Amino acid sequence: MRSRDGNRSLTRTIFLLILLNSFVLLEAKEFLISYRYVIKDATLYNEELYISNSMQKCLGKPQKSLTLTSYKNNDLKETIEKNSQEFIDFIHKLGLSVEHKEKTTNHINRSTTILTLKTTCFKVDFNDNFARIAPLK
Amino acid sequence: MKYSLLLIALSACALVANTPKSAQTIGDYDKINSIETQVLDIDTKVTSVETQVSDMDTKVNSVERKLASMESTVSKIKQTKEEPKEEQVLKEDLDIRISVVGQGVAPMNTSSPAQAYALAKRAATADAYRLIAEKVKGVRIDGQDLIKNMMVKRSTIRTSVKAMVRNANVVETTFKEGLCEVEMEIVLSHAQFSY
Question: What is the mean pLDDT of residues B45-74?
Fold first, then answer.
């Protein structure tokens, strides 16, 4: 016959196990993402997307999120790489700063347009096969 | 004309009838026959001329109608020229929708048509963003002309724009003969600018 205390410890263990499991499954991380692309004479010249783990806690509340299919190891870089078009469309919606310069010398035109997403902190929730990405503001 | 010829023919017939039978010769009959054929010819000609005249009438009517419509369009154009178009001002109860079409081309060294499309689309999107920025914020323009010995040696125009564009939506994307066109629009409301 088991004592009452023994039963309680068992319940506590089960509860802790469930809690730990949920933490493992639902893992929230913060990332710093910046994006920049250059267009020269109406042709894409250069495109850069930087992703890094945030070294310190970001401030702000999560805004409208994007859900992407994630792949093994909860790797954000790989997830974004596999869903690049979707993620870039999402970045465009967030807002980009536009810098355009055009020079016409003796009727010969040269133009450069740079679109930039300044380094922004994103909260990423990894869940089974999905990653929910939300910018913090 | 038609009736006069008929009268002539009839009078000729009467003359033939009044003349004694003895005087009628084969030559007279021939003359009468030839006159009758001439009258028939003239009849057919008259009918053809009449149809031509009716055709001309219809053509004249259509030309008149066209002229009237052209006059009305000219008057409309004059009216629009006279009345200056009201400048769009951001009002509290009215949003402004700005629509632009950005163009972009794919680089020469693409590995597949899909890549060419994706890269051209990106360039077109950037162009559309630039056009929106130009429309909303305006363009800075600098010009410089170098003249030596009364001749223009170098003429330079520099334009630049710097802005932050948010909530722009892609309406339509078309890709034709290496050129990608992205139609983009943005809705400006009074609340976005009132702090």
Answer: 90
